[in-house]
Every structure is written in structure tokens, then in C-alpha cells.
Design goal:
The protein is mainly beta and 364 residues long. It is built from 2 helices and 23 strands. The strands form 6 sheets. Strands 3, 6, 8, 9, 11 and 12 form a 6-stranded mixed sheet that branches. Strands 14, 18, 20, 22 and 23 form a 5-stranded mixed sheet that branches. It has a 4-stranded mixed sheet with strand order 7-13-21-19, with no helix packed on it. 39% of the residues are buried.
């Protein structure tokens, strides 16, 4: 029996509660499950910085017609990886106080009763690993110690449990970025190295073949989340069009109306974002999506260096494989071109667990 509580992946679609019914796995890419619109950070939405307080927010939807009492939410943070997620023990854990969740999915009001608020999380230097990409998992549940009939399927995640954000409606995932300090934009004169971890599934009696894939992110123009990230890069300015008021909300792929309208990219930038302009030593260049091919070389023990080549998980392979992907873009790529791709671990049928979205901007 399906439960009534869920972390809706696409809250805000068409300015409404979205189309997420709780059925899993979530197979849509607008947004993918790892960009759950019901999970975000304040004030950075998807970005935090070492040493600065950050506040986690989770929107809990209630499909029943009555108030759900004593709802609890856990969150877990861990460095980005592909494949099987890390364990309970290796994650940064946060717990919110129990709250009552009314029916429905709520509104964009920052004080809406569906939004569960956590105490501040101040990232420490040791939390920053690799290039700072992290996965934020939320779990919603009721305890039989507090309510007579807990929501079916909901349970507290403990040390003996794994994470299943795309297989369980009570869980959700939002990938974020943890920054140490503002870094200079990346040049295309040398390869770009992306550090992360690969976590292949445990070995079974009938071993499966796996492969690491990098797939171009295809989107007409830029998604609102891309605009939000790029607009915060040093030397990039967002020019808004004069023909459309900036308060006109955007809808569709990449919008994130679960955020306070004052900080949500769709509300701040409008449905027509205008142009992103990169400052250079000789003037400015418009930021455009690159269409040229990229080449990749992977360094990871036991995994082929060429992406797309299959490998078997054997007893010698570690549970967590330190991985570094060297990305070479077209040396003739123009200044201002943005190269975006999705990195994932796959078997012969589907993607395994979590993935990463990588953005590379060409500067002088």
C-alpha cells in the first residue's frame, strides 16, 4: 500500500503541485530525480560555502485528506558519487523537529506549513572533498512511538539502511555544490579534471557488467538552474529583456518554484532570462551552449579509462573507487561557450543510483 507522504520531485510544474504521484522509480528528466524541487538550501538554493551557515529546507506533500501528525524529516549529505550511494555512517546527518503536515503540497509562502526547516548547517573544511559536488538526501517518516498508524512505507533511516531516493516516495535527492572560495573560471587551454567517487553495486553470484557514461545535457537555451549558477560566477552578468517583466514566473524543465519567490531563479529572472554576458579583457562575450564534442579520459582503479567500456565488479574492487575524469574540450571552442554533460554509472538496462551534472565554461 502506497503512503500519503512524499517528497515531490516536480513541485511547481505549471505553477502547481506538480505531477508526482509517488510512483517510483521516477523516470522523467524534467527534472531528474536528483534535482528534486522539494529540497533546497537557504540562501544558496543549490550552493553552500565552507564556514557560512546554510539552512536546509524540505517540502513534504500530503496526499491524504487530513493532517498527518508528528512527521519527521532526516537529511543526509555526502560527497558526490556515481553508482550505489554511500552509507549512513559516512554522511553528514541532520534531523528536524516533528511537525504536522496539512493536506496538499502547499504554496511558495516561505512560512508554508509543508516546509520543514532545519537548524543551520555550517560546512567545515573537512566536508569539502573533490570539486565540492555533494548529494543531499531527505527522508520523511512517522514513528509508531508517536502515532498509532504511521504512514505506510515510511521509516527512519538507521545505520543498517541504505538510501533509495529514486525507489521510495518518502525519500528525495537534490545535488548541491559546496564551495571553499570563489575560483577563477576554467580555461580551455588545458583539460578540466573532475574528481568524484564511483560506488559500484556489491558483487553478486551473477556479476553484472557496468560502464561509466558521459551524456551531453540537451536543453533549448539554458535551464533556470543553469542561469542561477552562471549568474553567480565572477565576471558574468545577466541582462534581462525589457519586453517582459522580471516577475513573470517560468515553468517547465529546471524551474524550482519550491523556493521562496524572492530567491527562486524562475521568479527572479522571469520566463525569458535575457542573456548571460561574460566580461573579458577586450570587452564582453555572450554565453552560449556549446555543440562541439568533448573527449574524456578516466582514472579509476579497476574501471576502463575509455568511457562506455564495460567492466565487472570483482572481489578486488573497492566499495568506493576514487575517480578523476579528465575532460578535453575543442581547443577552438569560443570564449563564452558552456559545455554541460551528465556523468553516470550504468548497467545494460539502466542508470545505477546517482549521477552528476558537470558544467564547463570557456574563458580567456
Amino acid at each position: 500500500m502506497a503512503g500519503n507522504l512524499l517528497v515531490g520531485v516536480d513541485y511547481g510544474r505549471n505553477n502547481g503541485p506538480g505531477e508526482d504521484s509517488g510512483a517510483r522509480p521516477w523516470s522523467r528528466e524534467d527534472p531528474p530525480f536528483w534535482a528534486n524541487a522539494s529540497i533546497w538550501l537557504e540562501p544558496g538554493i543549490t550552493k553552500a560555502r565552507v564556514g557560512e551557515p546554510t539552512f536546509i529546507r524540505v517540502r513534504v506533500s500530503n496526499r491524504s485528506g487530513q493532517i498527518m501528525k508528528a512527521v519527521r524529516v532526516q537529511t543526509f549529505l555526502y560527497p558526490a558519487s556515481i553508482g550505489v550511494p554511500p552509507t549512513f555512517a559516512t554522511s553528514i546527518k541532520n534531523n528536524a523537529n516533528p511537525v504536522d503536515i496539512p493536506p496538499g503540497a502547499g504554496t511558495n509562502d516561505p512560512d508554508d506549513a509543508h516546509i520543514v526547516r532545519f537548524n543551520g548547517w555550517t560546512p567545515q573544511p573537512g566536508d569539502l572533498q573533490g570539486d565540492g559536488h555533494m548529494c543531499l538526501i531527505a527522508n520523511v517518516y512517522q514513528s509508531e512511538d508517536e502515532v498509532a498508524s504511521p504512514d505506510p512505507g515510511s521509516k527512519e533511516i538507521t545505520a543498517t539502511d541504505g538510501f533509495n531516493p529514486n525507489g521510495e516516495q518518502h525519500q528525495g535527492q537534490r545535488n548541491i555544490i559546496l564551495e571553499q572560495a570563489r575560483q577563477p573560471a576554467i580555461s580551455h587551454s588545458q583539460p578540466v579534471n573532475v574528481s568524484y567517487s564511483t560506488r559500484p553495486p556489491v558483487q553478486s553470484e551473477h556479476p553484472r557488467q557496468y560502464k561509466v557514461m558521459a551524456e551531453p545535457f540537451e536543453f533549448d537555451g539554458f535551464s533556470p538552474d543553469e542561469v542561477l549558477v552562471l549568474s553567480q560566477v565572477r565576471d558574468i552578468e545577466l541582462t534581462k529583456p525589457s519586453t517582459k517583466p522580471p516577475t513573470d514566473p517560468a515553468t517547465g524543465p529546471g524551474t524550482d518554484p519550491s523556493i521562496d519567490p524572492g530567491t527562486d531563479p524562475a521568479s527572479v529572472f522571469g520566463s525569458d532570462f535575457g542573456e548571460l554576458v561574460l566580461k573579458t579583457s577586450y570587452g564582453t562575450e555572450r554565453v552560449t551552449r556549446a555543440r562541439s564534442r568533448m573527449s574524456f579520459e578516466l582514472k579509476a582503479d579497476g574501471i576502463p579509462g575509455r568511457l562506455g567500456e564495460s567492466f565487472l565488479r570483482d572481489e578486488k574492487m573497492a566499495d568506493v573507487v576514487a575517480s578523476e575524469l579528465s575532460v578535453q574540450i575543442d581547443p577552438d571552442a569560443p570564449v563564452g561557450s558552456l559545455h554541460t554533460f551528465d556523468l553516470s554509472l550504468q548497467d545494460d538496462k539502466e542508470r545505477i543510483g546517482s549521477g552528476l551534472r558537470v558544467m564547463i565554461l570557456v574563458t580567456e
